[in-house]
Amino acid sequence: MWVVKIGGSLAASSELSAWLAALAGPRKVPLVVVPGGGPFADAVRRAQRRHGFDDRTAHLMALLATEQFGLMLCALGPGLVPAATLEAIRAAQGRGEVPVWMAAAMTADRPEIAASWDVTSDTLAAWLAGQMRAEALLLVKSAPPPQGPLSADGLAAAGLVDAAFPRMARGTGFAVRLLGPGDRDALVQGLAAGALPGVALAAA
Question: What is the pTM of this model?
Answer without folding.
Answer: 0.95
